[in-house]
Write a structure and sequence with these properties.
The protein is of the alpha/beta class and 215 residues long. It has two domains: 137 residues, Rossmann fold; 68 residues, DNA polymerase, domain 1, CATH 1.10.150. 46% of the residues lie in helices and 14% in strands. The strands form two sheets. It has a six-stranded parallel sheet with strand order 5-4-1-6-7-8, with helices on both faces. Helix 5 runs parallel beside helix 10 and helix 8 crosses helix 9. The longest helix is centred in the middle third of the chain and has 22 residues. The radius of gyration is 17 Å and the shape is globular. The relative contact order is 0.19. The mean pLDDT is 93. One of its GO terms (molecular function) is phosphoglycolate phosphatase activity. Its EC number is 3.1.3.18. Pfam families: HAD_2. It catalyses: 2-phosphoglycolate + H2O = glycolate + phosphate.
Length: 215
């Protein structure tokens, strides 16, 4: 895909592996919530990180192939109720340059979040790291039950964007962006690897400087 980056009018971001790392917190939450739902498991950072970026039902099915539909539904319901409280309590770690970079970028671009998380997670994330004033809107799988690409299009149409891009850290992010015609920028510092991108950066600071210089 040939891209004139000077025409970019909006930046859309994945959350996990792109803007922050909260995998240790997620593992802790999953262990606590599964136990409350009546099943003792041992979710680790290593076992969970391979699934980050997938919708919650897909993660459950992949990590626990023997789980029954009733157990999965019970865990999902427990997670929806408990995760907002526990995530706000335990938090995560933004990557270097993210908070400062988003503040600077917000003066030149509309900024959006598109994630496969629950509907409560994006507002908590924004509050935790103090970026709520910089984000025009966040849209999650939990809001629409649609894949990332469809949510990118919803935002593009709602805000009449001409050339938004999507920044994420795994190959599936690029596939979703390209499926709906958006250029994909790879966060190489995140959780995944891919060559299917129009640009790639080793730090969020480098990303920030590049796009500030485009305008």
């Amino acid at each position: 895909m040939q891209v004139d980056w000077s025409l970019t009018d909006a930046l859309m971001f994945d959350m996990d592996g792109t803007l922050w790392d909260a995998v240790d917190t997620y593992a802790r939450i999953w262990n606590e919530v599964f136990l409350r739902a009546g099943r003792e498991v041992h979710v680790t950072r290593e076992s969970l990180i391979r699934h980050i970026g997938m919708p919650i039902p897909n993660i459950i099915a992949s990590m626990f192939p023997d789980i029954t539909p009733d157990e999965s539904a019970r865990f999902s319901a427990e997670l929806a109720g408990e995760e907002p409280v526990l995530l706000a309590r335990y938090g995560g770690t933004p990557y270097p340059g993210v908070v400062e970079g988003l503040e600077r970028l917000s003066h030149k671009y509309k900024l959006f979040l598109v994630s496969n998380c629950d509907r409560h997670t994006l507002p908590i994330f924004m509050t935790c790291i103090g970026i709520t004033p910089y984000i025009t809107e966040g849209l999650a799988y939990g809001n629409t039950h649609k894949p990332k690409g469809d949510n990118m299009l919803l935002l593009k149409e709602k805000y009449r964007l001409q050339q938004p891009l999507y920044m994420g850290d795994i190959d599936a992010d690029g596939q979703e962006a390209h499926r709906v015609g958006l250029p994909f920028v790879h966060a190489r510092y995140g959780f995944g690897q891919t060559d299917d991108c129009e640009l790639a950066f080793d730090s969020f600071t480098d990303f920030t400087e590049f796009f500030l210089n485009c305008k």
